């Protein structure tokens, strides 16, 4: 596998949406290709960054209470 | 090259769901639906762009879900089911007053790869740590709606391509391309911000 092909599947690989065969090929390539390895690490970090930062906020407690009241106490 | 779908045997439930007692109905709804309240609220916030509409949208979603709770098969994907209800409600009742302007022509988006821009200066992405949560959310909110929903459902809430495709009612290939472009656009926005704040040197793209 060449770098270009590897990077084409970058997101599908990181999203765990590739077939086991392709996954093994990509993993094998990354293991001996420092530039691709660094690229994949960077994108992994980016996706984790987005997930963690955007999940910091949850529903307000007042909303939970309002819903419980509306559903179960009418 | 379709990814292998998760193995969900198409076996029908062993017995037809007996009518639930009010207590059972409430307990199962709390366990399987209310457990996703935070996720629903976050998605609603990204769709509507303001807390007040987001709260109303989630409340209405929960009300509708509870009324049709019998149509949900226990143990299946409650999160996806709820998000589908939420999104339909948003489109039918909230979208026209959402504050997000649809001004970006998605075909004019330049390919931008953050890694290429910063690999000399900060290949470990240390500057991410300096960006506050509010700025990340602001950057997501600035994405065109089609990208914003794909990124939110996949990257923030962890839905699979297949699940995102179901909620958005589009093919999996469309989900992939929206995610790809949405992520690139998000990276471009974060890059511009990081440069403007002096977290990285770079050259602000316009």
Task: Describe the structure in your own words.
- The complex is a heterodimer of chains A (74) and B (206).
- Helices cover 76% and strands 0% of the residues of chain A.
- Chain A has 74 residues and is mainly α.
- The radius of gyration of chain A is 20 Å and the shape is elongated.
- Chain B starts with 21 loop residues before the first helix and ends in a 10-residue tail after the last helix.
- Chain B is an all-alpha fold and 206 residues long.
- The radius of gyration of chain B is 20 Å and the shape is elongated.
- Helix content of chain B is 56%, strand content 0%.
Strand and helix map with partners:
The complex is a heterodimer of chains A (74) and B (206).
Chain A: H1 3-8, H2 10-14, H3 20-31, H4 34-54, H5 61-72
Chain B: H1 22-32, H2 37-48, H3 51-67, H4 78-94, H5 114-118, H6 133-141, H7 145-156, H8 161-168, H9 172-196
Helix pairs in contact in B: 2-3, 2-4, 3-4, 4-8, 6-9, 7-9, 8-9
Task: Summarize this entry quickly.
The complex is a heterodimer of chains A (74) and B (206). Chain A has 74 residues and is mainly α.
Write the H/E string of chain B, N to C.
Answer: HHHHHHHHH
Termini distance of chain B?
A: 36 Å
> Per the principal axes of the C-alpha atoms, what is the gross shape of chain A?
elongated
Please identify the structural class of chain A as seen in this structure: mainly alpha
Question: Total strand count of chain A, please?
Answer: 0
Describe the largest sheet of chain A: none
Compressed to H and E, one letter per element, the order of chain A equals: HHHHH
> Biggest interface between protein chains, with counts per chain?
A-B, 35 and 45 residues
Radius of gyration of chain B: 20 Å
Strand content of chain B: under 5%
- Low-confidence stretches of chain A at least 5 residues in length (pLDDT < 50)? none
Query: What is the tally of beta strands of chain B?
Result: 0
Rg result of chain A: 20 Å
Number of helices of chain A: 5
Q: What portion of the residues of chain A fall into strands of 2 or more residues?
A: under 5%
Number of separate helices of chain B: 9
Q: Oligomerization state of this entry?
A: heterodimer
